[in-house]
């Protein structure tokens, strides 16, 4: 049986309750209580993701957006 969850904290709570296993990126573990689950790193083929951002030209130079883009580059 498969289930789709778009909330990593909820997914981790479901795993902690014994309802199955889940795949969560490192970023999804940052703000969740993971003490009740065992974390394993996937081995074999490296996992990758692509993050894209589309900005209007008028706001692309905003200092706030520059900080957000910088953070996205770090985790991408």
Keywords:
mainly alpha; single chain; 76 residues
What can you tell me about this protein's structure?
With 76 residues, this protein is mostly helical. The mean pLDDT is 86.
Number of domains: 1
Please state the overall shape, judged from the principal axes of the Cα atoms: elongated
Beta-strand portion reads: under 5%
Q: What structural class is derived from the secondary structure elements? A: mainly alpha
Largest sheet: none
| End-to-end Cα distance | 31 Å
CA radius of gyration: 16 Å
Order of helices and strands: HHH
Q: Kindly report the average pLDDT value.
A: 86
Count of separate DSSP helical elements: 3
DSSP strand count: 0
Which segments are poorly predicted (pLDDT under 50) over 5 or more consecutive residues? Answer: none
Explain briefly what this protein structure is.
The protein is mostly helical and 76 residues long.
How do the helices and strands line up, and which of them pair or pack?
Elements: H1 8-16, H2 26-29, H3 63-75
